Predict the structure.
Amino acid sequence: MEAIVEWPEPVVRVQTLAGWDTIPDRYVKAPSERPDLTATAAGLANSVIPVIDFASLAAGGATEAVRAACRDWGFFQLVNHGIGSAAAARRAWRDFFALPMEEKQRYANSPATFEGYGSRLGVAKGGLLDWGDYFFLHLSPPSHPAKWPSSPPQLREKTEEYCGAVGKVIEQVKRAISAALGVEEGFMEAAFGAAGAAVRVNYYPKCPQPELTLGLSPHSDPGGLTVLLPDEHVKGLQVRHAGEWITVDTVPGGLIVNIGDQIQVLTNGTFQSVEHRVIVNAAVDRLSIAYFHNPQDDLLIEPANELVTRAAPAKYKPMKYKDYKMQIRMQGPGGKSHVDLLRTT
Protein backbone atom coordinates (compact mmCIF):
# COMPACT_ATOMS: atom_id res chain seq x y z
CA MET A 1 0.00 0.00 0.00
CA GLU A 2 1.58 3.25 -1.14
CA ALA A 3 1.44 6.40 0.94
CA ILE A 4 -0.48 9.39 -0.37
CA VAL A 5 1.82 12.40 -0.25
CA GLU A 6 -0.74 15.22 -0.45
CA TRP A 7 -4.12 15.89 1.12
CA PRO A 8 -6.97 15.53 -1.39
CA GLU A 9 -8.25 19.05 -0.68
CA PRO A 10 -7.15 22.20 1.19
CA VAL A 11 -6.79 21.65 4.93
CA VAL A 12 -8.79 23.94 7.23
CA ARG A 13 -7.40 24.55 10.71
CA VAL A 14 -10.14 23.95 13.24
CA GLN A 15 -8.75 26.72 15.41
CA THR A 16 -9.79 29.23 12.71
CA LEU A 17 -13.41 28.05 13.03
CA ALA A 18 -13.69 28.38 16.81
CA GLY A 19 -15.25 31.86 16.67
CA TRP A 20 -18.03 30.92 14.24
CA ASP A 21 -21.66 30.75 15.37
CA THR A 22 -22.20 27.35 13.75
CA ILE A 23 -19.90 24.58 12.60
CA PRO A 24 -19.47 23.67 8.91
CA ASP A 25 -21.35 20.63 7.65
CA ARG A 26 -18.10 18.69 7.26
CA TYR A 27 -17.90 18.43 11.07
CA VAL A 28 -21.53 17.46 11.77
CA LYS A 29 -21.79 13.81 12.80
CA ALA A 30 -24.74 11.52 12.10
CA PRO A 31 -27.35 11.66 14.89
CA SER A 32 -26.39 8.18 16.11
CA GLU A 33 -22.75 9.27 16.53
CA ARG A 34 -23.33 12.54 18.40
CA PRO A 35 -22.40 12.71 22.08
CA ASP A 36 -25.00 13.01 24.83
CA LEU A 37 -23.60 16.11 26.52
CA THR A 38 -26.66 16.44 28.76
CA ALA A 39 -25.86 13.18 30.52
CA THR A 40 -22.17 14.07 30.73
CA ALA A 41 -22.89 17.48 32.27
CA ALA A 42 -25.20 15.89 34.80
CA GLY A 43 -22.55 13.41 35.82
CA LEU A 44 -24.70 10.46 34.76
CA ALA A 45 -22.07 8.93 32.49
CA ASN A 46 -18.85 9.75 34.31
CA SER A 47 -16.46 7.18 35.72
CA VAL A 48 -13.02 6.87 37.21
CA ILE A 49 -11.43 4.05 35.22
CA PRO A 50 -9.21 1.61 37.18
CA VAL A 51 -6.43 3.38 39.09
CA ILE A 52 -3.09 1.65 39.62
CA ASP A 53 -0.24 2.87 41.80
CA PHE A 54 3.00 2.90 39.82
CA ALA A 55 5.16 2.06 42.82
CA SER A 56 3.13 -1.11 43.36
CA LEU A 57 3.23 -1.93 39.65
CA ALA A 58 7.01 -1.50 39.45
CA ALA A 59 7.46 -3.71 42.50
CA GLY A 60 5.38 -6.48 40.95
CA GLY A 61 2.49 -6.03 43.35
CA ALA A 62 -0.23 -4.94 40.94
CA THR A 63 -0.46 -8.02 38.72
CA GLU A 64 -4.13 -8.75 39.34
CA ALA A 65 -5.09 -5.07 39.00
CA VAL A 66 -3.26 -4.85 35.66
CA ARG A 67 -4.85 -8.11 34.46
CA ALA A 68 -8.36 -6.93 35.34
CA ALA A 69 -7.86 -3.48 33.79
CA CYS A 70 -6.44 -4.82 30.51
CA ARG A 71 -9.09 -7.54 30.27
CA ASP A 72 -12.19 -5.62 31.33
CA TRP A 73 -11.47 -1.98 30.41
CA GLY A 74 -8.46 -1.77 28.11
CA PHE A 75 -7.60 1.36 30.11
CA PHE A 76 -6.21 2.31 33.49
CA GLN A 77 -4.89 5.42 35.21
CA LEU A 78 -1.38 5.40 36.60
CA VAL A 79 -0.67 7.48 39.70
CA ASN A 80 2.49 8.15 41.73
CA HIS A 81 4.58 7.74 38.57
CA GLY A 82 7.05 10.44 39.64
CA ILE A 83 7.11 12.31 36.31
CA GLY A 84 7.63 15.95 37.20
CA SER A 85 8.11 17.28 33.66
CA ALA A 86 4.52 16.93 32.45
CA ALA A 87 3.35 20.43 33.34
CA ALA A 88 6.25 22.11 31.51
CA ALA A 89 5.63 20.07 28.36
CA ARG A 90 1.95 20.94 28.46
CA ARG A 91 2.69 24.66 28.88
CA ALA A 92 5.16 24.63 25.96
CA TRP A 93 2.58 23.14 23.61
CA ARG A 94 -0.12 25.55 24.74
CA ASP A 95 2.30 28.32 23.80
CA PHE A 96 2.79 26.73 20.39
CA PHE A 97 -0.92 26.55 19.60
CA ALA A 98 -1.25 30.20 20.68
CA LEU A 99 1.24 31.27 18.00
CA PRO A 100 0.03 33.17 14.89
CA MET A 101 -1.36 30.83 12.24
CA GLU A 102 1.35 31.66 9.70
CA GLU A 103 3.99 30.48 12.19
CA LYS A 104 2.24 27.16 12.79
CA GLN A 105 1.64 26.67 9.06
CA ARG A 106 5.40 26.37 8.54
CA TYR A 107 5.06 22.88 9.99
CA ALA A 108 2.00 21.74 8.01
CA ASN A 109 2.01 17.96 7.60
CA SER A 110 1.15 15.58 4.78
CA PRO A 111 -0.47 12.12 4.84
CA ALA A 112 2.87 10.57 3.82
CA THR A 113 4.15 10.55 7.42
CA PHE A 114 1.68 12.75 9.37
CA GLU A 115 4.69 14.45 10.98
CA GLY A 116 4.00 18.08 11.84
CA TYR A 117 0.96 20.31 12.25
CA GLY A 118 -2.25 18.58 11.21
CA SER A 119 -6.01 18.92 11.25
CA ARG A 120 -7.35 15.70 9.76
CA LEU A 121 -6.92 11.93 9.76
CA GLY A 122 -7.74 9.81 6.73
CA VAL A 123 -7.54 10.93 3.13
CA ALA A 124 -11.08 10.48 1.78
CA LYS A 125 -12.02 13.55 -0.24
CA GLY A 126 -15.17 15.16 1.10
CA GLY A 127 -15.25 12.91 4.17
CA LEU A 128 -16.50 14.00 7.58
CA LEU A 129 -13.88 15.67 9.78
CA ASP A 130 -13.19 15.89 13.51
CA TRP A 131 -13.05 19.09 15.56
CA GLY A 132 -9.37 19.06 16.43
CA ASP A 133 -5.87 20.10 15.39
CA TYR A 134 -2.70 18.25 16.38
CA PHE A 135 1.07 18.06 16.10
CA PHE A 136 2.63 14.66 15.45
CA LEU A 137 6.31 13.71 15.85
CA HIS A 138 8.33 10.51 15.72
CA LEU A 139 10.61 9.99 18.70
CA SER A 140 12.17 6.65 17.82
CA PRO A 141 13.31 6.54 15.09
CA PRO A 142 13.35 10.35 15.41
CA SER A 143 11.75 12.92 13.14
CA HIS A 144 14.15 15.18 11.26
CA PRO A 145 15.10 18.14 13.50
CA ALA A 146 13.44 20.54 11.02
CA LYS A 147 10.08 18.98 11.90
CA TRP A 148 10.30 20.36 15.44
CA PRO A 149 8.89 23.86 16.02
CA SER A 150 11.56 26.45 16.79
CA SER A 151 9.11 28.39 18.96
CA PRO A 152 8.62 28.39 21.85
CA PRO A 153 12.38 27.86 22.26
CA GLN A 154 12.20 25.19 24.98
CA LEU A 155 9.44 23.13 23.38
CA ARG A 156 11.64 20.32 22.10
CA GLU A 157 13.68 20.12 25.30
CA LYS A 158 10.60 19.95 27.51
CA THR A 159 8.85 17.48 25.25
CA GLU A 160 11.80 15.12 25.06
CA GLU A 161 12.33 15.33 28.81
CA TYR A 162 8.72 14.37 29.45
CA CYS A 163 8.63 11.65 26.78
CA GLY A 164 11.91 10.18 28.03
CA ALA A 165 10.36 9.79 31.47
CA VAL A 166 7.23 8.21 29.98
CA GLY A 167 9.39 5.75 28.06
CA LYS A 168 10.88 4.51 31.33
CA VAL A 169 7.41 4.09 32.80
CA ILE A 170 6.37 2.11 29.71
CA GLU A 171 9.14 -0.41 30.29
CA GLN A 172 7.73 -1.17 33.72
CA VAL A 173 4.19 -1.35 32.33
CA LYS A 174 5.28 -3.93 29.73
CA ARG A 175 6.80 -6.09 32.44
CA ALA A 176 3.58 -5.82 34.44
CA ILE A 177 1.51 -6.83 31.40
CA SER A 178 3.78 -9.85 30.85
CA ALA A 179 3.23 -10.87 34.47
CA ALA A 180 -0.51 -10.36 34.09
CA LEU A 181 -0.45 -12.74 31.10
CA GLY A 182 1.45 -15.34 33.10
CA VAL A 183 4.41 -15.40 30.70
CA GLU A 184 8.09 -14.53 31.08
CA GLU A 185 8.99 -11.02 32.23
CA GLY A 186 10.63 -10.14 28.91
CA PHE A 187 7.75 -11.40 26.76
CA MET A 188 6.35 -8.01 25.76
CA GLU A 189 9.81 -6.56 25.23
CA ALA A 190 10.76 -9.34 22.83
CA ALA A 191 7.42 -9.27 21.04
CA PHE A 192 7.81 -5.57 20.20
CA GLY A 193 11.33 -5.91 18.78
CA ALA A 194 13.12 -2.60 18.26
CA ALA A 195 10.09 -0.68 19.44
CA GLY A 196 9.20 2.71 18.03
CA ALA A 197 7.77 5.75 19.81
CA ALA A 198 5.86 8.82 18.72
CA VAL A 199 4.00 11.73 20.31
CA ARG A 200 0.84 13.50 19.21
CA VAL A 201 -0.23 16.70 20.91
CA ASN A 202 -4.00 17.07 20.54
CA TYR A 203 -5.55 20.53 20.53
CA TYR A 204 -9.34 20.80 20.63
CA PRO A 205 -10.49 24.41 20.14
CA LYS A 206 -13.73 25.55 21.74
CA CYS A 207 -16.70 24.63 19.58
CA PRO A 208 -19.95 26.60 19.02
CA GLN A 209 -22.01 23.38 18.66
CA PRO A 210 -20.27 20.62 20.63
CA GLU A 211 -23.43 18.50 20.66
CA LEU A 212 -23.09 17.94 16.88
CA THR A 213 -19.48 16.88 16.55
CA LEU A 214 -16.50 15.10 18.11
CA GLY A 215 -12.91 16.11 18.72
CA LEU A 216 -11.82 12.63 17.68
CA SER A 217 -14.10 9.93 16.25
CA PRO A 218 -14.42 6.47 17.85
CA HIS A 219 -11.33 4.32 17.35
CA SER A 220 -8.98 1.93 19.06
CA ASP A 221 -5.30 2.80 18.94
CA PRO A 222 -3.43 0.87 16.23
CA GLY A 223 -0.15 0.40 18.10
CA GLY A 224 0.95 -1.23 21.32
CA LEU A 225 0.50 1.06 24.31
CA THR A 226 -0.63 4.67 24.62
CA VAL A 227 0.11 6.92 27.58
CA LEU A 228 -2.07 10.03 27.65
CA LEU A 229 -1.39 13.19 29.61
CA PRO A 230 -4.93 14.61 29.82
CA ASP A 231 -5.96 18.23 30.08
CA GLU A 232 -5.64 19.23 33.71
CA HIS A 233 -8.92 21.17 33.80
CA VAL A 234 -11.38 19.95 31.17
CA LYS A 235 -12.76 16.44 30.69
CA GLY A 236 -13.13 15.12 27.16
CA LEU A 237 -12.02 11.50 26.82
CA GLN A 238 -14.84 8.97 26.53
CA VAL A 239 -14.33 5.19 26.68
CA ARG A 240 -16.85 2.62 25.48
CA HIS A 241 -17.51 0.29 28.39
CA ALA A 242 -20.29 -2.28 28.63
CA GLY A 243 -21.87 -0.74 25.53
CA GLU A 244 -22.00 2.78 26.98
CA TRP A 245 -19.87 5.88 26.42
CA ILE A 246 -18.23 6.76 29.72
CA THR A 247 -16.63 10.19 30.26
CA VAL A 248 -13.39 9.63 32.13
CA ASP A 249 -12.95 11.48 35.41
CA THR A 250 -9.20 11.91 35.56
CA VAL A 251 -7.24 11.61 38.79
CA PRO A 252 -5.13 14.75 39.42
CA GLY A 253 -1.58 14.13 38.28
CA GLY A 254 -2.47 10.76 36.76
CA LEU A 255 -1.56 9.35 33.37
CA ILE A 256 -4.03 7.33 31.30
CA VAL A 257 -2.67 4.09 29.83
CA ASN A 258 -4.50 2.08 27.19
CA ILE A 259 -3.97 -1.12 25.22
CA GLY A 260 -3.58 -0.88 21.44
CA ASP A 261 -4.66 -3.24 18.65
CA GLN A 262 -1.22 -4.89 18.45
CA ILE A 263 -1.50 -6.13 22.03
CA GLN A 264 -5.01 -7.44 21.35
CA VAL A 265 -3.61 -9.46 18.43
CA LEU A 266 -0.46 -10.52 20.28
CA THR A 267 -2.44 -11.77 23.30
CA ASN A 268 -4.98 -13.51 21.05
CA GLY A 269 -7.75 -11.35 22.47
CA THR A 270 -6.93 -11.97 26.14
CA PHE A 271 -6.40 -8.23 26.52
CA GLN A 272 -8.55 -5.88 24.46
CA SER A 273 -8.01 -2.56 22.80
CA VAL A 274 -11.11 -0.49 23.45
CA GLU A 275 -12.96 2.14 21.47
CA HIS A 276 -12.61 5.67 22.71
CA ARG A 277 -13.46 9.14 21.43
CA VAL A 278 -13.17 12.79 22.43
CA ILE A 279 -15.94 15.30 23.06
CA VAL A 280 -15.40 19.05 22.77
CA ASN A 281 -16.43 22.06 24.79
CA ALA A 282 -18.31 25.25 23.93
CA ALA A 283 -16.53 27.45 26.47
CA VAL A 284 -12.90 26.35 26.57
CA ASP A 285 -10.25 24.58 24.52
CA ARG A 286 -8.48 21.38 25.59
CA LEU A 287 -4.97 20.02 25.14
CA SER A 288 -3.64 16.53 25.73
CA ILE A 289 -0.36 14.77 24.93
CA ALA A 290 -0.43 11.17 23.70
CA TYR A 291 2.74 9.04 23.77
CA PHE A 292 2.60 5.97 21.53
CA HIS A 293 4.78 2.90 22.10
CA ASN A 294 4.62 0.65 19.04
CA PRO A 295 6.11 -2.58 17.71
CA GLN A 296 9.02 -2.51 15.29
CA ASP A 297 7.63 -1.38 11.92
CA ASP A 298 8.60 -4.43 9.86
CA LEU A 299 7.79 -6.98 12.56
CA LEU A 300 5.03 -9.48 11.87
CA ILE A 301 2.52 -9.27 14.70
CA GLU A 302 0.40 -12.35 15.33
CA PRO A 303 -1.02 -14.29 18.29
CA ALA A 304 1.88 -15.48 20.44
CA ASN A 305 2.57 -19.21 20.55
CA GLU A 306 2.43 -19.10 24.34
CA LEU A 307 -1.20 -17.96 24.18
CA VAL A 308 -2.50 -20.19 21.38
CA THR A 309 -3.83 -23.65 22.22
CA ARG A 310 -6.08 -26.23 20.61
CA ALA A 311 -8.88 -24.92 22.79
CA ALA A 312 -8.00 -21.31 21.95
CA PRO A 313 -6.71 -21.25 18.34
CA ALA A 314 -5.31 -18.10 16.74
CA LYS A 315 -8.08 -15.53 16.32
CA TYR A 316 -6.12 -13.04 14.16
CA LYS A 317 -4.18 -13.13 10.91
CA PRO A 318 -0.55 -11.92 11.03
CA MET A 319 0.26 -8.48 9.65
CA LYS A 320 3.30 -6.22 9.72
CA TYR A 321 2.73 -3.19 11.90
CA LYS A 322 3.82 -0.77 9.16
CA ASP A 323 1.11 -2.18 6.84
CA TYR A 324 -1.53 -1.99 9.54
CA LYS A 325 -0.56 1.58 10.36
CA MET A 326 -0.73 2.60 6.69
CA GLN A 327 -4.19 1.08 6.36
CA ILE A 328 -5.46 3.26 9.18
CA ARG A 329 -3.73 6.36 7.84
CA MET A 330 -5.55 5.94 4.55
CA GLN A 331 -8.97 5.26 6.06
CA GLY A 332 -8.94 7.28 9.29
CA PRO A 333 -10.66 6.34 12.58
CA GLY A 334 -13.08 3.45 12.27
CA GLY A 335 -14.08 2.14 15.67
CA LYS A 336 -12.86 -1.44 15.98
CA SER A 337 -13.26 -2.17 12.27
CA HIS A 338 -9.54 -2.25 11.47
CA VAL A 339 -8.57 -4.92 13.99
CA ASP A 340 -11.77 -6.85 13.27
CA LEU A 341 -10.58 -7.27 9.67
CA LEU A 342 -7.70 -9.36 11.02
CA ARG A 343 -10.02 -11.89 12.63
CA THR A 344 -9.77 -15.45 11.31
CA THR A 345 -13.39 -16.24 12.15
Remarks:
- The two ends are 24 Å apart (CA to CA).
- The mean pLDDT is 93.
- The longest helix spans residues 155-181.
- The CA atoms of residues 206 and 285 lie 5 Å apart.
